[in-house]
Specification:
By secondary structure, the chain is α+β, with helices and mostly antiparallel strands. It has one domain (2-121): Alpha-L RNA-binding motif (Alpha-Beta Plaits, 2-Layer Sandwich), CATH 3.30.70. It contains four helices and seven strands, in the order H-E-H-E-E-E-E-H-E-E-H. It has a five-stranded antiparallel beta sheet with strand order 4-5-1-6-7. It is globular. The two termini are 14 Å apart. 16% of the residues are buried.
């Protein structure tokens, strides 16, 4: 309903950890922070500014059923991206736009709520989220 729309819209921060193909440069991070040009439903779209940083090490996450890939395919890097908008596949399109295709993507925070050990597809009531959303 309305709360779901507020969370997807520009009103609530969403933080993601993205494992990307390749080594991240400061230039790529700067481009992500300023906003990049992507396509949404076939139309050009300029993303808003976001917070982007390289993680010092791989985050501790639940294992995948199938590994993303192994070390024979070259290096990967983990990023933290915090957005206040939520377009379809936006994070994946943003990293691809700076030459870093996303291999794995995990949402770790909505507003001030860390998702922690919430399983994929899991649901948890979050007191005060409606207040956070405005």
């Amino acid at each position: 309903g309305r709360l779901s729309e507020l969370v997807r819209s520009r009103h609530v921060e969403k933080e993601y950890y993205a494992q990307v193909d390749g080594l991240v440069t400061e230039e790529a991070l700067a481009q992500l922070r300023q906003g990049v040009d992507i396509s949404i439903q076939g139309q050009p779209y300029r993303t808003g500014p976001c917070q982007a940083r390289q993680l010092a090490s791989a985050p501790v996450l639940a294992p995948r059923a199938r590994p993303v890939r192994d070390d024979r395919h070259g290096p990967t890097t983990w990023l933290s991206l915090t957005l206040t908008e939520g377009k379809f596949r936006q994070v994946r399109k943003m990293t691809a736009a700076v030459g870093l295709p996303t291999l794995r993507l995990v949402r770790v925070r909505i507003g001030s709520q860390l998702l922690g050990d919430l399983p994929p597809g899991g649901v948890r009531e979050v007191p005060g989220l409606a207040d956070t959303a405005g």
